[in-house]
């Protein structure tokens, strides 16, 4: 698809928020017709083709950038399908091992259920035309009762992809999905996406609905095994309340911390 090519997308109209519908339509169109580095059409053209306002379109584009589906090109006024990211820091730790706070951090599992694949999860887990369901777990992190982070994690349910039996253990009842899958599973995986963005959208996340967007940082990650993505997570973190420690060993010289001043 050249810089001036038209991206063919279907108009949107169902009961979901318009920005979510636009997100799905764009992911679908980009997945079918674009290659990394291809420039997407200007906002005014996309808005007209989708039948939505530019305000709705900009929200969907912001979410696509946040999730690493698109990125700014050499000309920052234009967006393009994102190139595969460089390899992130070499660790596979669950979020509870990466967060630090002055007081104890507690984890509450909000829900664990099987969900249908969306265009977002299909693209990042490289599921192609598969109709399999995904195992989803949402977890809420608190410090002194205050919500400080949320984890939304997804894994395929196909045979052999992940050790799903470990999720049902009693000791996994208050762990994130990645933690419940165990150290052996994580050791066999390679981080394949690490995308951080300021101003994450809480959406329907339990406990974070009233947190202002400018106090949230979004982190989207995938882990791959044998070259195939097997784990997807989107974390929302309040870096004004906790520190995110990145590195193989939190106390090693090559690790670094992320926090707001």
UniProtKB/TrEMBL annotation:
InterPro entries: Bact_HTH_transcr_reg, Tscrpt_reg_HTH_GntR, WH-like_DNA-bd_sf, WH_DNA-bd_sf. It comes from the Bacteria. Keywords: DNA-binding, Transcription, Transcription regulation. Residues 16-84 form the HTH gntR-type domain. Gene3D superfamilies: Winged helix-like DNA-binding domain superfamily/Winged helix DNA-binding domain. The keyword Transferase does not apply. This is HTH gntR-type domain-containing protein. It comes from Microbacterium sediminicola.
């Amino acid at each position: 698809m050249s810089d001036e090519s038209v991206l063919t997308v279907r108009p949107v109209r169902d009961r979901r928020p318009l920005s979510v519908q636009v997100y799905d339509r764009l992911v679908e169109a980009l997945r079918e017709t674009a290659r990394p580095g291809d420039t997407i059409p200007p906002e005014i053209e996309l808005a007209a083709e989708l039948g939505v306002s530019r305000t709705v379109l900009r929200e969907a584009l912001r979410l696509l950038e946040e999730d690493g589906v698109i990125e700014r090109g050499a000309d920052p006024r234009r967006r393009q399908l994102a190139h595969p990211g460089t390899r992130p820091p070499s660790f596979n730790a669950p979020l509870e091992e990466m967060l630090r706070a002055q007081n104890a951090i507690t984890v509450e599992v909000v829900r664990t259920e099987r969900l249908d694949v969306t265009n977002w999860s299909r693209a990042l887990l490289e599921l192609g035309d598969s109709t399999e369901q995904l195992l989803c777990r949402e977890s809420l992190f608190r410090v002194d009762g205050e919500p400080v982070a949320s984890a939304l994690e997804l894994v395929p349910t196909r045979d052999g992809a992940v050790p799903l039996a470990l999720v049902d253990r009693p000791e996994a009842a208050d762990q994130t999905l990645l933690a419940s899958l165990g150290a052996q599973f994580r050791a066999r995986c390679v981080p394949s996406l690490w995308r951080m963005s300021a101003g994450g959208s809480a959406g329907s996340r339990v406990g974070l609905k009233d947190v202002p967007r400018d106090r949230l940082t979004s982190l989207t990650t995938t882990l791959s095994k044998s070259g195939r993505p097997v784990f997807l997570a989107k974390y929302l973190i309040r870096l004004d309340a906790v520190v995110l420690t990145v590195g193989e060993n939190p106390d090693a010289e090559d690790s670094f911390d992320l926090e707001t001043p």
